[in-house]
């Protein structure tokens, strides 16, 4: 995907919006479907993704996990592609060498296929069919509920996932980032099929979706196929249900302890950071890399090299709404939780007070350049990265954001550490492993 092509064409039923770094944006005139196309005529494969602008942030108590459960149900068949007529997605595409899957997260859901390019039309037809004609049936809910519940239980048995879930639930009192994408167990088990159908009808429409194609395809032919298949759907009648809940200001440190059977002790420290499109996010990402990216990072040298911890990571999440920067440390045997917490906070304070060196800054930027190169390493990598920017609210960040990362200065890093890594704005979590009986 190193070479970039931008063959702008005119196709009846679509409106060209703009081109940016080889990505063509169109709109479907009849229903507002957003279309993003990146062509490489020499590629033997094509990637196709439908990103719905709905995720767990659009759920509420009683139907948490609805987006994820619907993801499972939408593979159970649709009007023209189902097991009854022996035209399931698996029989039609996987048998032809396609990679077929879907993912759900806080701000989006996507369905995708990566396949030999001659089968792109089939993927377009199939995804258009289940956009508005998916089978949402009680018998499928019952069977898939047990699959999803097993996923939930695996997460509960993973110390890191269990602690992470607790930290997000404590950091957010009001905003739906409070609950994880998989939902609460009782909602998974008991949500009525009528509620899932309502959720589907609330959000799964062309004017709440983005279609992306990457790789080997003809732009004119692809647009014509999208017009033919997705143009069958109208835009939604009425407004979408807005997610208008804002998290109130935090007034003091919050703490949680998860104590359960296990063999791993953990410490997690989270701080609120702005939404993905905020101008401070590039500096916060560089800060996270300086803290815990690789064996020369500050926290690795402080915690792992000293044998106090066996692993450490820091991640700045980039979501549609204000999110979290979190550091996790996996403790070595007999290391006190309090010791790790103090050392992490000391590292934060040191950067806020004294800043970072040019060596640290340059090392972080080298890591960023490697990551940026990986974003175009094949159709799925490209689609996945583009999808996250769509979810954040601005797909053009896929092109513009890397430049902002390499422009971050040492003063920027010190400033955001001082502004956001404040104890009174933190959520601290400890996982204490109890003896297994």
Keywords:
Cytochrome Bc1 Complex, Chain A, domain 1; seven-stranded mixed sheet; alpha+beta; 2 domains; 12 strands; 437 residues
What secondary-structure arrangement, pairings included, does this model have?
Blueprint: E1 14-20, E2 23-28, E3 34-39, E4 45-52, H1 66-73, H2 89-92, E5 99-104, E6 109-116, H3 120-133, H4 138-156, H5 159-171, H6 185-190, H7 193-203, E7 209-215, H8 219-230, E8 254-261, E9 266-273, H9 281-292, H10 298-304, E10 309-316, E11 323-331, H11 337-354, H12 358-374, H13 379-392, H14 397-406, H15 410-420, E12 426-434
Q: At CATH's second level, what is the architecture of the largest domain?
A: 2-Layer Sandwich
- Poorly predicted runs of 5 or more residues: none
CATH homologous superfamily classification of the largest domain: Metalloenzyme, LuxS/M16 peptidase-like
How is the main sheet built? 7 strands, mixed
- Domain count: the total is 2
Mean pLDDT: 95
> If you compute it from the alpha carbons, what radius of gyration comes out, rounded to the nearest whole angstrom?
23 Å
Share in β-strands: 15-25%
Computed structural class: alpha+beta
Strand order of the largest sheet: 1-2-3-7-4-6-5
The CATH topology label of the largest domain is Cytochrome Bc1 Complex, Chain A, domain 1
Query: How does the overall form come out from the CA principal axes?
Result: globular
Overall number of strands: 12
Gap from first CA to last CA: 52 Å
CATH C-level of the largest domain: Alpha Beta
